[in-house]
Write a structure and sequence with these properties.
Structural class: mainly alpha
Distance between the termini: 72 Å
Helix content: over 70%
Number of strands: 0
Shape: elongated
Low-confidence stretches: none
Largest sheet: none
């Protein structure tokens, strides 16, 4: 029975260590996206065009009703 308490306490300690490591890495910017902002301008026209086509289709659908 004592081995269960030992394993439980060790697993909780390991989980806390990983959680603290995750929080530290997030605060230091490890998961910041540095690639997408650089290429966003290349695809911005396609997004604007898709949005205008979608709004034009929505306007046509609403006038047909």
């Amino acid at each position: 029975m004592s081995i269960i308490f030992l394993l439980l306490s060790v697993s909780i300690c390991v989980a806390i260590v990983f959680f603290v490591a995750f929080i530290v890495s997030v605060k230091r910017g490890q998961y910041d996206d540095t690639y997408t902002p650089a290429v966003r301008m290349l695809f911005e026209d396609e997004l604007v065009q898709e949005a205008s086509e979608t709004s034009a289709t929505t306007i046509k659908d609403s006038t047909n009703e």
